[in-house]
Amino acid sequence: MAGRINDDDVKAVRDAVPIDAVVSEYLQLRNAGGGNLKGLCPFHDEKSPSFQVSPAKGLFYCFGCQEGGDTVDFVMKIDHLSFAETIERLAAQAGITLRYEEGGYTPGRQQGERIRLVEAHKHAAKFYAEQLGSAEAEIGRQFLASRGFGQEAAEHFGVGYSPAGWDHLTRFLRGKGFSDKELILSGLAQESRGGRPIDRFRGRLMWPIRDITGEVIGFGARKLRDDDNGPKYLNTPETPLYRKSHVLYGIDLAKKDIAKTSRAVVVEGYTDVMACHLAGVTTAIATCGTAFAGDHIKILRRLLMDNSGAKVIFTFDGDAAGQRAALRAFEDDQKFAASTKIAVSPGGMDPCELRLADGDDAVRRLVEESTPLFEFAIRSVVARHAVEEPEGQAAALEEAAPIVANIKDGSIRHQYAVRLAGLLGILDSQFVVMRVGQLARWARERGERGGPQQRSAGRAGAPAPGPAAGSAAGPDHRRTGGPQAVRGPALNLRSPAALTERELLKLALQRPELVAPAFDAYGEDEFTAVPYVAVRRAVEEAGGVTGAPADYLTRVRDAAPDDTVRAMITELAVEAIRHKNVDEVYAGIQLVQVRLRAVERRIQEVQGSLIRLGSRPDPEHLAAVQNELWVLEQYARSLKDRGAAAL
User: Fold this and answer.
1) How crowded is residue 451: how many other Cβ atoms within 10 Å of its Cβ?
2) What burial class does residue 242 get, using C-beta atoms within 10 Å of its C-beta: 0-12 exposed, 13-18 middle, 19+ buried?
3) Is 358 in contact with 376 (CB distance < 8 Å)?
4) Cα–chain-centroid distance for residue 42?
């Protein structure tokens, strides 16, 4: 068993890896003001960015689904790693050697399972790449050359070759310290009939498949010889690292340009990705042996940010199968806010073949001259019918109208309805517009009858102040994994008292120097909302705001009694302060308002006690109550007159 990672090393890892650098490996981040960054949340579906990152504080928080935490929490959540695996992974990125409490530096056997599998793939990719230069791999080099790819292209994409023997890679990885169990679990090896591990890939051209961070998590292997009885392409099986529905080949190379240009080009194969990139279309990506579907869309949406100028372009062969694939893409089109287009290559050529035949310019033209997906879908339907005859017109209308009716943007829907009328040769375009409108209305009504979850699908946002981490997420903030559980008591954010308390706690977490030392004298009873009381207690247990150390926020989060309070602390630490000039004057106003409301509440309580004493109270008791009331009233007046100076 691995020992506990040394606390100093954990802290060094947290400090060494900036949270914005880690998060930007998975999604596009933009300026959100106040030093924060924003993007589409990777933990739930949303239309507008409610996910915020605070580089200065090293925290992230989603105001839609209430997920939050630091760099370690983010990596744990998004890659489903244990705490130890996450620290080991980040330590490797930062070049930090970890120590364990039981002594010694990180031996291989102490690494987490995922880290070990990633390391195995890293070694395998290097092994395959080196084998591409061997005499046996001549057939692989010839294949690449026949597709227009030389040594430089192979090196850029990490293309390699798996030797034809039974256990070349297996023996190589054993020599690196990997166990047979790890090799089989990784998908790099499989059990033979005799029960011993043998190489899964033999005598094939190898493409390393990387995740969005650039780590090799699988391989795609193409057969090269006629005596290979396996499929043309053989991919890594489903493993703890590799799930084909969650992977886009080339995403590690394309992600920066996709985010920069707000354009993604989806092609069908590894060589198509290579051809596009070499032709200057550096936003090309491909699925890995599966249809483009919902999980692939989520990856792209986080990079495209769903801005109105974004484009997703699908390239398909011009044959019937390619057209069917294009029309299937239409079904998922409106999960993008981006403009979706289709590029159908001439003569049934894929981008790789097109580049060979007509050069790089032809590939670029193919992408630039793409057709809007709605138009392609409508024209494909109309082309199947004899629209010069009334019967053909009617049949085409009934098949094409539902496609137009599914367009969510009403103005675009109207334009395509008019265009459909023209394609059908129907002079009365209003008739087609009305038919499309009728179908759209029926679809909308069916959706409304489907319940609140359907009606609110896609709504999200980050109101200011954000929703409480302690409140139940509404139906529009549910994650794909199921309903969001209630995470604590709700907060009445319309209450001036709650807003002021929230603002003061934000200052205490984000700018502790502005509220020190006065805040440390505030009691828990000065906060009316239960979640805020818990945050106040955590601040106190972390040592208070006075002389807050560099790891102050980490200490406060660690002092939280549970995940609900920890989420609230993260939310308040990331949420923007409700004022342009955050200074001592503004902080003093919040301190005074919270204290004044607490004093006024106590005045009301004492006045109630005075009434309850009745007409014949004990003189000594009466004097004590009256004295307390007088002191409170004088203090309230002083707070109103002198402000923070009276604290």
Assistant:
1) 10
2) buried
3) no
4) 2
Element counts in the chain: helices (H) and strands (E): 27, 17
Q: What is the pLDDT of residues 565-605, one digit of tens each?
A: 999 999 999 999 988 889 999 999 999 999 999 999 999 98
Pick 489 or 131 by higher pLDDT.
Answer: 131
Backbone angles phi, psi at 121, to 5 degrees: -70, -35
Closest CA to 573 of 11, 221, 55, 115: 55
- Does pLDDT of 101 surpass 80? no
Mean pLDDT of 93-106: 72
pTM higher than 0.70: no
| Mean local confidence (pLDDT), 475-483 | 33
Residue 487, pLDDT score: 39
Helix axes 530-541, 563-574, angle to 10 degrees: 90
Higher pLDDT, 617 or 275: 275
Q: What structural domains does the chain harbor?
A: 7-110 (3.90.580.10), 113-242 (3.90.980.10), 248-378 (3.40.1360.10), 391-452 (no CATH), 496-646 (1.10.860)
Strands 30-33 vs 339-344: parallel, antiparallel or unpaired: unpaired
Q: How far is CA 616 from CA 603, 609, 612, 619, in A?
A: 22, 14, 10, 8
At 472, the pLDDT band (50, 70, 90 cuts) reads very low
- Strand 263-267 to 284-287 pairing: parallel
- Residues 6+ positions from 494 with CB-CB distance below 8 Å: none
Residue 530 has what pLDDT? 87
